Amino acid sequence: MIVVIAATLGGGDGDGSHKGAGGTSHATRHQQASHHTPKSYEVQSGDTLTSIAHQTGVPVARILRLNPGIDPQILISGEELKLK
Q: What total of structural domains would you count in the chain?
């Protein structure tokens, strides 16, 4: 059995970018945090509420609250979900 353990040094932001002291990882994180949330999202094949939440930055609970008629277990491709 072989066990491989990998770790990143220098901030632990976990994005795998390995930026040094002069890198822009802090600025990148700030830009990601302030991204624009669209009003809606069109469901793609293979999407789950969790994957949509990760892509859009909108929590699953909010997606469910804004879309009371959807079945979270069965998302239909082409279906529009409200995000705001």
A: 1
